[in-house]
From TrEMBL, chain A:
Protein name according to UniProt: Thioredoxin reductase 3
Annotated cofactor note: Binds 1 FAD per subunit.
SUPFAM superfamilies listed in its UniProt record: FAD/NAD(P)-binding domain, FAD/NAD-linked reductases, dimerisation (C-terminal) domain, Thioredoxin-like
Family in the record: Belongs to the class-I pyridine nucleotide-disulfide oxidoreductase family.
GO function terms (MF aspect): flavin adenine dinucleotide binding; glutathione-disulfide reductase (NADPH) activity; thioredoxin-disulfide reductase (NADPH) activity
GO BP of this protein: cell differentiation; cell redox homeostasis; cellular response to oxidative stress; glutathione metabolic process; spermatogenesis
Pfam families: Glutaredoxin, Pyr_redox_2, Pyr_redox_dim
Domain named Pyridine nucleotide-disulphide oxidoreductase dimerisation: residues: 460-571
UniProtKB keywords: Cytoplasm, Developmental protein, Differentiation, Disulfide bond, Electron transport, Endoplasmic reticulum, FAD, Flavoprotein, Methylation, Microsome, NAD, NADP, Nucleotide-binding, Nucleus, Oxidoreductase, Phosphoprotein, Redox-active center, Selenocysteine, Spermatogenesis, Transport
EC number(s) stated in the UniProt entry for this protein: 1.8.1.9
Lineage, highest ranks first: Eukaryota, Metazoa, Chordata, Craniata, Vertebrata
From TrEMBL, chain B:
Protein name in UniProt: thioredoxin-disulfide reductase (NADPH)
UniProt key word NAD: yes
One GO term of the biological process aspect: glutathione metabolic process
Cellular compartments per GO CC: cytosol; mitochondrion
Required co-factors: FAD
Keywords: Disulfide bond, FAD, Flavoprotein, NAD, NADP, Nucleotide-binding, Oxidoreductase, Redox-active center, Selenocysteine
Family to which the UniProt record says this protein belongs: Belongs to the class-I pyridine nucleotide-disulfide oxidoreductase family.
PANTHER family: GLUTATHIONE REDUCTASE, THIOREDOXIN-DISULFIDE REDUCTASE
Species per Swiss-Prot/TrEMBL record: Aotus nancymaae (Ma's night monkey)
PROSITE patterns assigned to the protein according to its UniProt record, in alphabetical order: PYRIDINE_REDOX_1
Active site (UniProt): H479 (proton acceptor)
Recorded GO MF terms: flavin adenine dinucleotide binding; glutathione-disulfide reductase (NADPH) activity; thioredoxin-disulfide reductase (NADPH) activity
Cofactor comment text: Binds 1 FAD per subunit.
Pfam families: Pyr_redox_2, Pyr_redox_dim
């Protein structure tokens, strides 16, 4: 039935799923006949399996009501949407449309989400184009194909994190019997060059895989000019126009600036840090996002003097108990924190690589101001969606005016039926590479592969690569209390001491594990949190288990792998409500 | 030796039965219920025994633990905590970590750290640090027993009758202990190939085959010239494709392998070195080599001989001398139980012994009826490239379900951390063995790569709750990690 339905939509110019007695259906039918369009009308009240067809329509379109209208394979919606499309001229365009478009799909943005969607669509036999263009940062940094993750996100960040961990490993190694001259220094240029080389090989790989799949890649800035039509401007300012039946917006985000004197002139962001040609020296990190803390963490790990300026709380949106522990570990390992201050002015005292900058900051609570001198000021106060300069207003794609994010339905469709969006620009969705990849791929399969699988944004695991890594999946304690009420929850927790830390003489009672269970649903695990080495590696499998409905009982029944950090979750005994001591004594 | 020993064992068995019957009727020498010294007596202070004792004490029972370490032929002995803490998992993983750090020191210059050459390793310093940690754990176990009011005796135990055990202390002082319930958790000790000339005099030991590879791995890692001699295949019982990748990786990192060889003699040369003679079983030729140390890892034997099990009537397997138990861990004598490595047919793993011990105490004294589930026990071999697995090997899955009904998804991958130092990742590999029929239930997971233990633990849970291939694929990855490779497995072996 599903296949029959999709076949029908594929073959017919206009399909109206209607009910013979429905006045809205009648209005739509009249509209199409006034436009002289030939329609395939299926009266669901007059066929045997009408109810079942309606169920299938609900799955495909997320709309159960009639009329339900498709024009040239594009789901327009119900009566109101059809009349809106008629008034905006979109409907007429859709009706004119045949294979006259240059492409089946144009993806704007060559990051994780855009590329996965483009490649999947190409695998399904569609003619696909990807537009990708990196607007240089105010400091002039730009990069190749692959988006934030590859160039200025996950990949260089994890490699720098690894470099910092190696510093710790060198420190530990003496305790494990290794002997060498302990005067070890870190060379920023060597590291950065190695990391940039790796990134360039990844850029090259992405380009190659697009070519292999016959996806057209254009290194130009894409902007909608009218329905189904986009203007692509290259580095030299040459403009080319392309048309496509469907579009996917995957433009991602870029770091936000403070909007104070001297910020764009003198400050850098994560866009610049990973390819900075010189060691940043004494650094002020502004912000308390995971980007801020990760960068501050590895910079301190290289032995640099690092200060983090925090406006209010660390890691907003994450479990605050964990966030607090992440921060205090950093503080114990040499990162300084300036709480409740915001910068108001940045001045250059000396030019150079690095130069010297004076930062003036004021308290968020009073009139106090402070001054500090740093070699580098790194802004990590958040990111803005790249949605305001791509002509969305020309075709009427709605964005959240405040955040710039694009609201979509559960099939990643915007308010303009043939325009979809994936990745960090989605409103209310996690900003994570694997999520973008998954949603991009599933979107292509739904559009072109007759699949119905939707992207599941629930229980998405993630890891913050601070010096002590923090992995989590599911709800934070705050959110769980808000949703389920405190009395309905049981929280199990413990501190632990990784075996590798003992001989190394690293601190006990620092690593921490916590699960949040719903007492009235078989102690089902709602939230999983771990602070410790290799948190990412530990969390992944538990995330898979949460997909299968993990309960406390199952954790208890599972045998640990000894000696690992992950095994701590199989022996959690102490509840938070009991108030019992969780510090480890002896072993 | 073979037939002779078997015959004798046969006689012993009958005798035990007879003895058990007598004990059961009269409770001849043992104290009567209510008059016995303890509710529970645990013989063996290793992972399983201690867990059982502590749990029972927690449930308000009067508990005693007896533990005694018979010195090894080379005179090595240790404190409370059993194999895992003293001569197993803990020191092994710490030495593995030392070797990993050696690799990281080599990586460091690529990441910008200017490490001056030469880099040397001091065994004594490492061993001392490891032993200090082990001693703190021994102490910790003592304190925990004390805190929970478990009586601890450092004596060698032997049964007097089915409710009474005689303990002999180091100085020869004896003590009689009686209990309503007795748990045997004496574990195992490494076997010496006694038939090889010089093996006992000159060799030292460690555990079974996986331990052999682990030791060879970290010894190579700290810069020693290490050779592994194998009679047949590495890691028997593990997935053979994974096993060969493990040894392939080790060989490419400097460990030498002598396959299909059996040693015939160990001789001390005038310069103090050891000369080993072996036979290559494929060519029939003899080979010799000189080494500073010969480490036997030919398996472990259960520590049951000195227990006088026949006095209590506890049955053992004639082949392995391991104790036979039912699903409730009960031996042939209903109130005597056995847990851990001393038991026939159980995985020789610390966490299984711990859980079995706790569950047993809960059944005995806590009104529980939960049985230990020995199915789908995850484990990790800490070879230089770690190998974590849970569930069935590919061979086992095929033999149980048939080639046609099994789908294997697999991938080679490159850990991100390997890229910058240009490490070779040819053996980083993951495979998931599933049923072919939708929704493709996961039968086994095998992961070879850094931090395999950490990666495997969570998936073990998933597999335990009946995860399907589809569910694992619906899980969003954590980027960039090695474990995300598991949720990205798309290619089946069948598809090529």
């Amino acid at each position: 039935r599903r296949r029959r339905l999709l076949g029908l939509i594929e073959r017919s110019r206009v399909v109206i799923f209607s009910k013979s007695y429905c006045p809205h259906s009648t209005r739509v039918k009249e509209l199409f006949s006034s436009l002289g369009a030939e329609c395939y009308v299926l009266e669901l009240d007059q066929v045997d399996d009408g109810a079942k067809i309606q169920e299938v329509l609900l799955e495909i379109t997320n709309q159960k009501t009639v009329p339900n209208i498709f024009v040239n394979k594009v789901h327009v919606g119900g009566c109101d949407q059809t009349f809106q499309a008629y008034q905006s001229g979109l409907l007429q365009k859709l009706l004119q449309e045949d294979s006259a478009y240059d492409y089946d799909l144009i993806v704007i943005g060559g990051g994780s989400g855009g590329l996965s969607c483009a490649k999947e669509a190409a695998i399904l036999g569609k003619k696909v184009m990807v537009l990708d263009f990196v607007v240089p940062s105010p400091q002039g940094t730009s990069w190749g194909l692959g988006g934030t993750c590859v160039n200025v996100g996950c990949i260089p960040k994890k490699l720098m994190h690894q470099a910092a961990l190696l510093g710790q490993a060198l420190h530990d190694s003496g305790k494990f019997g290794w002997e060498y001259n302990q005067q070890v220094k870190h060379n920023w240029e060597t590291m950065t060059k190695a990391i940039q080389n790796h990134i360039r090989s990844l850029n090259f790989g992405y380009g190659l895989s697009l070519r292999e799949k016959a996806v057209a890649y254009v290194n130009s800035y894409g902007e909608f000019v009218e329905h189904h039509k986009i203007k692509a401007t290259n580095k030299k300012g040459q403009e080319t126009y392309y048309t496509a039946a469907q579009f996917v917006i995957a433009t991602g985000e870029r770091p936000r600036y403070l909007g104070i004197q001297g910020d764009k002139e003198y400050c850098i962001t994560s866009d610049d840090l990973f390819s900075l040609p010189y060691c940043p020296g004494k650094t002020l990190v502004v912000g308390a996002s995971y980007v801020a803390l990760e960068c501050a963490g590895f910079l301190a790990g290289f032995g640099l003097d690092v200060t983090v300026m925090v406006r209010s709380i660390l890691l907003r949106g994450f479990d605050q108990e964990m966030a607090e522990k992440v921060g205090s570990y950093m503080e114990q390992h040499g990162v300084k924190f300036l709480w409740k201050f915001i910068p108001v002015m940045v001045q250059q005292l000396e030019k150079g690589s690095p130069g010297k900058l004076k930062v003036l900051a004021k308290s968020t609570e009073g009139t106090e101001t402070i001054e500090g001198v740093y070699n580098t000021v790194l802004l990590a106060i958040g990111r803005d969606s790249c949605t305001r300069k791509i002509g969305l207003e020309k075709i009427g794609v709605k964005i959240n005016e405040k955040s710039g994010k694009i609201p979509v339905n559960d099939v990643e469709q915007t308010n303009v039926p043939y325009v979809y969006a994936v990745g960090d620009i989605l409103e209310g969705k996690p900003e994570l590479t694997p999520v973008a990849i998954q949603s991009g791929k599933l979107l292509a399969r739904r559009l072109f592969g007759a699949s119905l699988e939707k992207c599941d944004y629930i229980n998405v695991p993630t890891t913050v690569f601070t010096p002590l890594e923090y992995g989590c999946c599911g709800l934070s304690e705050e959110k769980a209390i808000e949703v389920y009420k405190k009395e309905n929850l049981e929280i199990y927790h413990t501190l632990f001491w990784p075996l590798e830390w003992t001989v190394a003489g690293r601190e006990n009672n620092t690593c921490y594990a916590k699960i949040i269970c719903n007492k009235f649903d078989h102690d089902r695990v709602l939230g999983f949190h771990i602070l410790g080495p290799n948190a990412g590696e530990v969390t992944q499998g538990f995330a898979a288990a949460m997909k299968c409905g993990l309960t406390k009982q199952l954790l208890d029944d599972t045998i640990g792998i000894h000696p690992t950090c992950g095994e701590v979750f199989t022996t959690l005994e102490i509840t938070k409500s009991s108030g019992l001591d969780i510090t480890q004594k002896g072993c | 030796r073979g037939p002779m020993a078997a015959a004798l064992r046969g006689v012993g068995r009958r005798f035990r039965w007879w003895n058990a019957g007598r004990g059961g009727r009269g409770g001849r020498r043992g104290a009567r219920p209510g008059q016995r010294d303890y509710d529970l007596l645990v013989i063996g202070g290793g992972s399983g025994g201690l867990a059982c004792a502590k749990e029972a004490a927690q449930l308000g029972r009067k508990v005693a633990v007896v533990d005694y370490v018979e010195p090894s032929p080379r005179g090595t002995r240790w404190g409370l905590g059993g194999t895992c803490v003293n001569v197993g998992c803990i020191p092994k993983k710490l030495m593995h970590q030392a070797a990993l750090l050696g690799g990281l020191i080599r990586d460091a210059p690529h990441y910008g750290w200017e490490v001056a050459q030469p880099v040397l390793h001091d065994w004594r310093k490492m061993a001392e640090a490891v032993q200090n940690h082990v001693k703190s754990l021994n102490w910790g176990h003592r304190v925990q027993l004390h805190d929970r009011k478990v009586k601890y005796f450092n004596v060698k135990a032997g049964f007097v009758d089915e409710h009474t055990v005689r303990g002999v202390a180091k100085g020869g002082k004896e003590i009689l202990l009686s209990a309503d319930h007795i748990v045997i958790a004496t574990g195992g000790r490494p076997r010496y190939p006694a038939h090889i000339e010089g093996a006992l005099e000159y060799g030292i030991t460690t555990g079974a085959a996986d331990v052999a590879l682990e030791c060879a791995g970290f010894l190579t890692g700290i810069g020693l010239d290490t050779t592994v001699m194998m009679r047949s295949i590495p890691l028997r019982g593990f997935d053979q494709q994974m096993s060969s990748l493990v040894t392939e990786h080790m060989a490419s990192h400097g460990t030498r392998f002598l396959r299909g060889c059996t040693p015939s003699q160990v001789r001390r040369l005038p310069d103090g070195q050891l000369q080993v003679t072996w036979e290559d079983r494929t060519t029939g030729k003899e080979g010799t080599g000189t080494f500073n140390t010969v480490l036997w890892a030919v398996g472990r034997a259960p520590d049951t001989r000195s227990l006088n099990l026949e006095k209590a009537g506890v049955d053992t397997s004639p082949n392995t001398q391991k104790i036979l138990v039912d699903s409730r861990e009960a031996t042939s004598v209903p109130h005597i139980y056995a847990i851990g490595d001393v038991v026939e047919g159980r995985p020789e793993l610390t966490p299984t012994a711990v859980m079995a011990g706790r569950l047993l105490a809960q059944r005995l004294f806590g009104g529980s009826s939960d049985l230990m589930d020995y199915d789908k026990v995850p484990t990790t071999v800490f070879t230089p490239l770690e190998y974590g697995c849970v569930g069935l090997s590919e061979e086992e899955a095929v033999s149980r379900h048939g080639q046609e009904r099994v789908e294997v998804y697999h991938a080679h991958y490159k850990p991100l951390e390997f890229t910058v130092p240009g490490r070779d990742a040819s053996q980083c590999y993951v495979k998931m063995v599933c049923l072919r029929e939708p929704p493709q239930l996961v039968l086994g997971l095998h992961f070879l790569g850094p931090n395999a233990g950490e990666v495997t633990q969570g998936f073990a849970l998933g597999i335990k709750c009946g995860a399907s291939y589809v569910q694992v694929m619906q899980t969003v990855g954590i980027h960039p990690t090695c474990s995300e490779e598991i949720v990205k497995l798309r290619i089946s072996k069948r598809s090529g």
